[in-house]
Amino acid sequence: TLNEKYGSGSFWQLAVINDDDIIGIRESLRPGSTLEVAKINLTNGSMKTIGTYPYGSYSLVMTYASKRRLYYNVINPKVYAVNVDTGNLDVNIQIPNGYSIYALDYDSINDRLIALVYSSSETNGWILTQMIITEKQEIKFERIGTTVIPFEKYLWTTTYTINSNEHAWMTIWSDKNSNDSIFISLNIDNGEIIEKWEINSKGFGNLVCFD
What would the pLDDT profile of 115-139 be if each residue is shown by its tens digit? Predict the structure, then answer.
């Protein structure tokens, strides 16, 4: 049973940090913030706020980078990250003009941020990239491969996950014409499509890989 007197129990995402605690991003009840990072003690269910993100329009594009100890969150037009040890907002960077981030995941083996983005200067579709934060605190997107997921064919959802051991980023989208659910797996090293097939089930709200 979760136990919290002053916070919300409504979590959008969870991540394991050790045998005793998990962390996650939840709705914030604090002034000036929409979302926050909180810790849940698995023994007694107590919840505690670690740090908050600035107020803004969020899109549920978020990921925990275990080796960096940072919980990233896209709140347009910026990328933020809360340090899970200190609670400080260590990352506060403007997204480059012309880019929109639709998915963000963490490759724990190679310590990389993998992002699915749209760029008005690149192509009329979604492309797989590595998101790099430079020493000057700027964001750069390095395209991975040449695969394009076209706007005119698919409906975007936030149902996606990464399998670092298999070098794969996986997602389930809907075909605009047939309304079928399509499972797509992309190689995070070369961007090529590994798998693509229809699935019978519809209405997936989440996709998780235990690696």
Answer: 999 988 888 899 999 999 999 999 9
Rounded distance, CA 52 to CA 32, Å?
9
Q: Residue 105 in 3-state DSSP? A: strand
Give backbone dihedrals phi and psi of 82, rounded to 5 degrees, phi first: -100, 130
Rounded CA-CA distance 26/202 in Å is 26
Q: Sketch the domain layout of the chain as residue ranges.
A: 1-56, 58-200
Amino acid letter, 155: L
User: Rounded distance, CA 141 to CA 122, Å?
Assistant: 11
Distance CA 52, CA 30 (A): 8
Burial string for 164-202 (b: 16+ CB within 10 Å, else e) reads beebbbbbbbbeeeeeebbbbbbbbeebeeeeeeeeeee
Task: Give the pLDDT of residue 202.
Answer: 66
118 within 8 A of 76, measured Cβ to Cβ: no
**CATH T-level fold of 58-200:** Methylamine Dehydrogenase; Chain H (2.130.10)
